[in-house]
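Work Package 4 report. The design task specified in the project plan requires that, given a folded chain encoded as structure tokens, an amino acid be chosen for each position. We show below one input record used in the internal validation round.
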């Protein structure tokens, strides 16, 4: 059995997600090209995907010569509005969190 279940099927019920999680699998929910949520009994992780600019790639390469992993991050941008997300993916994340809560409380 695989160690995780990459779900793209937003139609799974909370109970089905609980079964997936109970068997030790991770539920991955992607919000566009920016965020990935990984929900399991062990916790909820969020990963931010960020493409490096040419300058950042240069800094990264130069750092290895000095035994460092250096990523220069640009100043944070002020959010002007909430990030729009696919309603199906948002519903899947909600059900995955509910499934996790059900398993941990029951």
């Amino acid at each position: 059995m695989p160690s995780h279940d990459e779900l793209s099927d937003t139609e799974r019920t909370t109970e089905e997600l609980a079964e997936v999680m109970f068997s030790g699998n991770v539920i991955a929910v992607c919000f566009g090209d920016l965020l990935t949520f990984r929900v399991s009994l062990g916790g909820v992780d969020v990963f931010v995907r960020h493409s490096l600019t040419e300058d950042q790639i240069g800094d990264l390469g130069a750092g290895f010569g000095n035994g460092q992993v250096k990523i220069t991050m640009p100043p944070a941008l002020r959010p002007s509005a909430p990030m729009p997300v696919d309603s199906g993916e948002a519903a899947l994340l909600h059900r995955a969190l509910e499934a996790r809560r059900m398993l941990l409380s029951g």
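The first strand starts at residue 27 and ends at 31. Validation will be extended to a larger panel in the next phase.
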